[in-house]
Give the backbone structure.
Amino acid sequence: MNNEVLAKMEDLALVSFDEAERESVLTEMAEVMACLDAIKAADAEGAEPMIYVQALENVFREDEVHEFPRIDDILENAPDEMEHQFVAPPTFD
Amino acid sequence: MTNQNPLALAQAIRAGTCTVAEAIAPYIEKIEQDGSLFSSFDREAAAAQIDAVQARLRAGEALSPLAGMPVAVTETICTQGEETAAGSKMLAGFKPPFEAMAVTKLKEAGMIVLGKLKTDEFGCDGLGCTAPLAIKKGQVLLGFGCDTGGSLRAPAVQNGVYCVKPTYGAVSRAGLIAYASSMDQVSVFAPDLALCEAGLMAVAGHDPADSTSLETPLPPAGGFSVSGRKVGILKEALEETDEAGKAAVKAAADAFAAAGAQVMELSIPQVKNALAAYLIIATAEASGNMARFDGIKYGYQTPHYENLFDLYLKSRSEGFGRKMKERLGLGSLMLSEGYYDDYYDKAMRVRGQIAAAVKAAFDQVDCLLTPVFPANADFDAATLLGAEKNNRLLTAASLTGRPSLVIPAEAQNGVQLIGRYMEDLTLLAFGRAAAPERSGV
């Protein structure tokens, strides 16, 4: 764990840590990575990856429209709304 | 009235010798004396529910054994029109336009959902979970929340309350604010095992809205007896715990033996990797689930930004707390080039190894017995790893999706019982044998 890896984590997760806490975040993440070494060291040769505990299958249903009756309730949660739509900044300059 | 046996009180409500309002009043009074454990409590909404349940009872509707009883859900479970912030600035003010299936089922069963109980951010590690305290203070009878890697079971035992994490898929996750989808499961807090069972039965069942919801109902335990059954004490967990944990396991083992069960020690070395596998898989899943929080659709939006990317970055950086940002960074890293094969893929293979080893153990035994906390558990842990280490004996059940019941004992430790898939009710019967003096009615 170093500043470069921490910067990669921030970039990938789209978050940034305050400058004042970077040093302690680095220390904590180094402890976490040391704990995760158990996985690197584990012998998993031949083991199948387990994503879900159940064997998931596609769940099919009829392609029917189900009206959601409370559109206004959804838009009430939007930080900014105009003409029944979410407002976002321009994507292109 | 909160001192009266709750199931007897519920029976009195159904018999008409006590009204729902009379039964609920002492609980509401205690919340109004100290509402600090609740993120939201609406007396008027509670009164409306009370009137509705009373009317259903008067109309002769057959309701559940807990109809009229006061419950609450953690703030990671959606309730329509009521703030559901999941303990995060990111979701401050979010009022879901729908309610979770678990809440719908509680209301259909006639329970009174009094409000929302506080959690730590997105309920990740359970250190800020107030539900067990609300039960101990007599503010609610039951609590419901989401346990991922022990985040409900740990605070339950720390505070002297029971908790059952059901078989993965036994309870719908629809309407739950997701953290790690392959392990999140609605779980039940209760002051005794009889109420644990009643609470579980109220929320369990198939839901088409959750593609991982099991179609088969939980089979009843029937006349199950532990006599002649085999209980395995997990050696690796016993080695990690303190004197209180060992004493709790010994007391449970003695109770099992007294009830005619055969108790043996067994080893599953693969579980030593459970915490590391859990951390990788849970944070990786969280990084995907939390990608939706972008400052546009709901929740926190930074007031100052220059462009769309800046809006995303600042809203997420200011909206998430430090531990959550660490989790998201870690999870994203585990899924990235250069880390995926060594960590994420390997963790999933280790998960498969653990599941296979636990399955093989169940060829020898009918129930696994472990302590709940390792030695030196730090209930004030401020770091991501510190908090997760507390819960490390609980993660194997999460990774494998097996039902896990925790029973509190002395000195903030207790025992965990892990059962067979779908045999949650049998697991509760094992619990009654492990703690016969505190099983309720």
